[in-house]
Design goal:
Length: 312
Amino acid sequence: MNNFCLLSNDVETTSIWHNALRDETGLKVLKEGMPMLLDLYEKYNIKSTFFFTGYIAKLYPEIVKMVLPFGHEVASHGLSHKKEHGFDVMPLNMQIHHLKESKKILEDLSGKEVVSFRAPALRVNGDTSRALLESNYKIDSSIASQRFDLFMSFGGLKKLKWLFAPRLPYISKESSLFSKGQNGIVEVPVSAMILPYLSTTMRIFPKITSYQRRFLAFETERSGKPIVFLTHPNEFIDEREENKIINKRSENPLASFLQDTLRSKLKSKNLGVNGIKLYENQIEFFVSQGFNFCTIKEYCSNSGLLERTENK
């Protein structure tokens, strides 16, 4: 049995240091974060999937074009990463607009069909599967099976559905990305074990992440479930020379403390070069365990999941 590790990257203008969307941060991602990430992948001959927001793609078109020579997959991260544009709060028609517009932007820049999507902050609702189908997407990676966030992220209550979502990739229901069906989108869940297995956890709790990866590798040996790791190139830039101003996104004092003040403080650990070193440790572990690396689209195609949706 071949074991797979699918590395994925969400590319946006979010400043972790300032807890805000900033064009200046997007430029640092283009000039600093992306080159470090691409060099790391080239070092280990890894093909990964890059989910771009339409906003950063229009702002800095080169950020999309720079991944193409390496064979990485260009995928959609929606049109905007603004809180009010979460796919868990937008109505169906607006979701379709964001999906189609981001798809067009990315396809025009890359010259390739865009079939994969990941919602900003992994926020989806009951309309998102239908919106994806109507916008000609085939794959989603917004569900984090058995991850528990609650009040530490926006849309936490709706994300409780993650606790009951299947762990292995599946064909979703047409009416829900959280459940198996026959007529929906291919869902490739982001790996989690109560805590999410992603670079934020890796930077905050590197020791816990070292245990996570061993458990997930053991699970893969038994079930064939691919490991799906989520990272952001904005984690590998360093803005600490700037005065820190935490942007408050919630008017509720408790929610603001948990989702903005506390979360921002935790997420600021091990940014920049320290973060990229920790990420390379993750990659080296899976290389040593004989895992295969490929894009999410390639995995779905080679596993027959895409064929099942196309022949339905």
